[in-house]
Design a protein that fits this description.
The protein is of the alpha/beta class and 342 residues long. It has eleven helices and ten strands. It has a six-stranded mixed β-sheet with strand order 1-2-10-7-8-9, with helices on both faces. Helix 3 links the parallel strand 4 and strand 5. It starts with 34 loop residues before the first strand and ends in a 15-residue tail after the last strand. The relative contact order is 0.16.
Amino acid sequence: MQDSEFRPMRRSSLDGEPDMGIHDSILDSIGNTPLVRLNRVIDGLDAEILVKVEYLNPSGSIKDRIAVRMINEAEREGRLKPGYTIVEATTGNTGASLCFVGAAKGYKLRMFCPKLTASPERVQIMRMFGAEIEVVDTEELLQMTEMKDSSAHGVVIEVIPRQKCLELEQSDPTVWWARQFSNPYNVIAHREGTGQEILQDTGGHLDAFIASVGTGGTLLGVAQALKAAKPEIQIHAVEPAAVPHLKSGLKDIPIIPGINDGILLDIVREQITDSIISVTDQEAINMAHRMAKQEGLFCGMSSGANVLAAIQVAKEIGRGARVVTVLPDNRYRYTSLEKYTT
């Protein structure tokens, strides 16, 4: 029997009834994260900012949701089988989540990480889940983008790592490339999971949703769920000021089919955003610090950017606004390298 076919024996409690409080796998604990009201960082704002604490997913980020969904669907469709290797290009969070889910299911894992975002913490997390890591030098590519600060956007920074994934997939039939940037189950995981949880927890009473855009899966999936229930809701995207690719309509980057097209193009085509808010690296870092010191929320830099943008939107909507955003990952991944990365 292959490791990924392992099924634990179910036990019953002393009275013979099933143990309803016991999960068959750690993967069953993904999702249903709390929605928390901010109190001190909102600076007397006469509005509500609610944050979905996604770093409480078992591996520490929102990407657990898409990792388990993409892997489960690939298995169901016969594209991922016992003995295969999962590969991905990653700035850190999706890679860690794929490694976490892959380890729980018994797969081999190989991750390609851009040097700019390959912090010791992120690389070590993936290695501790048993993955093979290749750090890819992308300095020449970065110079071409004329970045103004140290922020990073996956649509550019992951181009060379994604090309390596494609080469592996084409040369080895036992390799499955997750393709987070274009995998439809990235969006579906948030439309059927994160978005529905927000609707349930708020009773549908919210005015706007905010999310940083990397692959775009969180923004698009949650937006689709919220707009289906509440068509008038505002949707605001957030991205690093140094790499405003979505704000430009993706006109400032070459689109390479199969490498950096996909969900981002869907966001532009569907015109789901009411605005695209730019946040600098330092602004995101400063707010992340405030979130820890003033709210006790130990979140990462994209969380800081999301909260900063949520406050801006709430001010624009006015008194009584309720704005929801997400805290995608935890601060432990940024102790040696603080950077707003999407």
